[in-house]
Write the structure tokens for this entry.
Amino acid sequence: MGYSVGQLARFAGITVRTLHHYDEIGLLSPGERTAAGYRRYTDRDVERLQQVLFYRELGFSLEEIAAILDEPGADPLTHLRRQHELLRRRIGRLEAMAAAVERAMEAHTMGIDLTPEERFEVFGDFDPDEHAEEVEERWGGTDAFEQSRRRTARYTKDDWKTITGEAGEILGEFAAVYAAGEPAGGERATDTAERHRAHITRWFYDCSYEMHRGLGEMYVADARFAANYENVAEGLSGYVRDAIVANAERHA
């Protein structure tokens, strides 16, 4: 008998009105109707709705989605390949955003002298000032905090773009080594951990191996830091922590 419009709306987390609209514009019409004229959606309709919602999530207009889904010769594999590419692009953007967030929090300072336009260009939707109170409470008065404050107060927009770019590259390296199945204590992983430590030392504060260990533990223990890695790959935060520990041990 298929699914009623109310059932499908609940499954998909959308409104009945949305499904009615999709039917009216020909984007998703129910494959069946009851004798009384009520809409009934088939399994094929459900699959099409999933495609519609996926492309909507990626920012496509309803007109663009209709053209994509009704493209002659486009089979399910074609859509999967296209979706995979679109997701890879989004992941790349999210990695860059996560790196910007991480660098801003690791800086332990809100002394970023940029205009609102420059801040948006560097950090996107992330606002470092929102974390000012917590940063002061956690690290205010420490040598690393003061050192980082002095350094970052002098940074220009181009400096911050360089910092976030380097951070994104390091995050990408961790993700690639992890995906390749390399051990956290292996040369590639520990070399990446060393580059991560050197990046902090260069731009923010003198990060000893012991301090680096502490950061690694925080990446796992603090859900907000862990999300920067887990949003890239499940288990990546623990892998980064283990690589940092292994790197510290090889330099002991």
User: Anything to note?
Assistant: The chain is about 70% helix and 0% strand. Residues 59 and 65 are 10 Å apart (CA to CA). The chain has a mean pLDDT of 83. The longest strand covers residues 32-33.
